[in-house]
Design goal:
Order of helices and strands: HHHHHHHHHHHH
Distance between the termini: 79 Å
Number of strands: 0
Number of helices: 12
Shape: globular
Radius of gyration: 26 Å
Helix content: over 70%
Structural class: mainly alpha
């Protein structure tokens, strides 16, 4: 009974914490800009000379702040919504539910509803239009949006961390940072494949439930990575935290998972994810995982073992190539 109560409480607080970014967003920029303005004020200058210099610049601190240091989290979130929602998602919806049905009506009107050639003509027209639309518009815009979104997400994550915790504590070297990024990317990709494997369970509802649990943990890991990266946590420490407080992270990622399961199209679900994910980054910086009585589950162990095996094989192959004796000259 106590275990069930602890599990339910952790999931509940995880769901509640996932919505923190929605109301913190409206005061985050204001608070960060206020802190920066306070550092520019003459009262923070210790020496008389610096105080006089600050007083001489007192009339233009807000203009300087606006040009160089102004926090733009609100505008970044708005840009994510504009790019992924108003441009990308809306164009797909208009194409699927407005343009294609209109073209179908036109073809049926030309050939007649009872014509045997109407369906055949529409099949090829729909195929050509869909391939053209995806090739010229969807694929390039998807690639561009993924790159731009990552830049915006990083900017939002850094600003949210400064708002909640101050200066970054990251102390990893560049080589370790790159290695950690590559390894975490491989682990997360394999974990997503592991989630998809769950859907092939002979018991549909069990497999789909495990699939959703995997996605909840993965989405939570995505959101908390920006915070933990600023704290200097490596991938193994991040995964240990997820596995230890897994009920909380299931609750934290649950709303986003449910919202991204609305459509059967992974592109539409990806647009919804990109629109809402910035708010989850902010929520993760404000959240503190609840301590529950459930034991740790090593759900990432299979993908970690597989990732270690892949990297060890790559390392051995490189060593073989380096130490391979040169062929004798003839």
């Amino acid at each position: 009974m106590d275990v069930a109560k602890g599990f339910g409480s952790a999931v509940f607080w995880g769901v509640c914490d996932s919505f923190k970014g929605f109301y913190i967003l409206f005061r985050l920029d204001k608070e960060l800009n206020k802190r920066r303005l306070s550092r520019l004020s003459p009262t923070h200058s210790s020496s008389p000379i610096r105080r006089r210099q600050s007083e001489s610049r007192e009339q233009t601190p807000s203009r300087t702040l606006q040009k160089h240091e102004e926090s733009t989290v609100m505008s970044r979130v708005f840009q994510c919504g504009l790019l992924n929602g108003a441009i990308f998602l809306l164009s797909i919806l208009l194409f699927e539910y407005a343009f294609l049905p209109t073209m179908k009506r036109v073809i049926l009107l030309i050939f007649g509803k009872d014509s045997p050639n109407a369906q055949s003509v529409w099949f090829w027209v729909e195929l050509i239009l869909t391939i053209t639309f995806q090739t010229i518009w969807v694929v390039p815009l998807f690639a561009i949006s993924k790159f731009i979104n990552n830049l915006w997400f990083q900017d939002i994550g850094q600003s949210a961390y400064k708002y909640s915790r101050g200066r970054s504590n990251a102390s990893l070297s560049l080589s370790k940072t790159v290695a950690d990024f590559i390894f975490s990317t491989v682990v997360e990709t394999l974990f997503l494949i592991q989630a998809l494997v769950m859907t092939y369970s002979p018991i549909y509802y069990l497999g789909y439930g495990l699939y959703l649990i995997h996605l909840c943990l993965l989405y939570s890991l995505y959101a908390f990575e920006y915070k933990w990266g600023e704290m200097g946590w490596e991938i193994h420490k991040r995964l240990t935290c997820i596995e230890t407080h897994w009920p909380y992270f299931i609750g934290f990622g649950l709303p986003l998972v449910l919202l991204t399961q609305i459509s059967n199209s992974w592109i539409i679900n990806g647009c919804i994810f990109s629109m809402l994910f910035p708010l989850y980054i902010i929520s993760a910086n404000e959240a503190n995982p609840a301590v529950e009585s459930c034991s740790r589950i090593k759900i990432f162990s299979p993908v970690i073992a597989l990732s270690n095996t892949l990297f060890s094989l790559i390392g051995k192959e490189k060593k073989i190539q380096i130490h391979r004796p040169a062929a004798p000259r003839r």
